[in-house]
Design goal:
By secondary structure, the chain is mainly α. It has one domain: Up-down Bundle (Four Helix Bundle (Hemerythrin (Met), subunit A)), CATH 1.20.120. It is built from 6 helices and no strands. The longest helix is centred in the N-terminal third of the chain and has 27 residues, at 5-31.
């Protein structure tokens, strides 16, 4: 399905709004020391921002792994975003998977909190790129 420019802009705005709401949810969880939930919300905040980026660029977003792959292919390998930005998204995928599904993974402040500031910065960087 092909989107009109207006439809694309609307979806991109909705994805960015979702990214910001999810980041706020993450802050609530972190303040309550709920580190598994914090890991989950961190990943999803960035996932929605990356989805907005891909949609704004005319790329199809079909899956979480596809989103990760397309971000790397279209924005990291081309130098629009840094390798560190790509690694951050990859790290958050692994961290979220561990926090959600691995019974033996202990989500702690020491493991999760260092990702908060870089995630916020990348969301802002994505938003700036989208809006030129």
């Amino acid at each position: 399905m092909s989107l009109s420019d207006q439809e694309r802009q609307t979806i991109v705005s909705m994805e960015m709004e979702k990214a910001h709401r999810t980041f706020a949810d993450m802050e609530f969880c972190a303040n309550k020391q709920r580190w598994e939930a914090t890991a989950n919300r961190l990943y999803y905040a960035l996932f929605h921002a990356v989805s907005a980026l891909l949609i704004s660029g005319g790329h199809n977003v079909k899956s979480h792994r596809g989103t990760l792959s397309q971000f790397g292919q279209h924005y990291v390998r081309t130098g629009v975003f840094s390798r560190e930005d790509g690694s951050l998204l990859s790290d958050l995928v692994i961290m979220r998977d561990n926090a959600d599904y691995n019974l033996f993974f202990e989500a702690t402040e020491e493991k999760i909190a260092p990702y908060i500031k870089p995630t916020k910065q990348l969301i802002e960087k994505i938003e700036q790129y989208i809006h030129g």
